[in-house]
Amino acid sequence: MWNDAKPHVHDAQNLSGTIVGTLVAILINIPAKDLAYTAAMAAVGACTSFLASCLLKWLTRRIEQWIRQNKTPPA
């Protein structure tokens, strides 16, 4: 009977091949202009996120330093 068959050994390979094939097919159909725009926006977003993180870290250190010096929290 067909229900007694053993599971395929290479199911993970088939799944990953299907996913990669689908992604490649999608990427081929996206215009280069859109890919460049997406990459540029990703770079801008990453830089903005990094700068915001640095600013918050610096601000936190300054507030902690101020609290240590004055022994009272800022109003």
Keyword list:
membrane, 75 residues, mainly alpha, 2 helices, 0% strand, single chain, transmembrane, transmembrane helix
Describe what this molecule looks like in 3D.
The protein is mainly alpha-helical. It has a domain at 32-75. The chain has helices at 11-29, 32-70. The mean pLDDT is 83. Keywords: Membrane, Transmembrane, Transmembrane helix. The chain crosses the membrane at residues 12-30, 36-59.
Short description:
By secondary structure, the protein is mainly α. The protein has helices spanning 11-29, 32-70.
What's the SSE blueprint?
Layout: H1 11-29, H2 32-70
Distance from N terminus to C terminus (CA atoms, Å) equals 78 Å
Number of helices: 2
Strand tally? 0
Mean pLDDT: 83
Rg value: 26 Å
> Helix amount, in percent?
over 70%
- H-E string: HH
Strand content: under 5%
Instruction: Extract low-pLDDT stretches.
Output: none
What is the molecular shape? elongated
Return the structural class. mainly alpha
In this structure, how is the largest beta sheet organized?
A: none
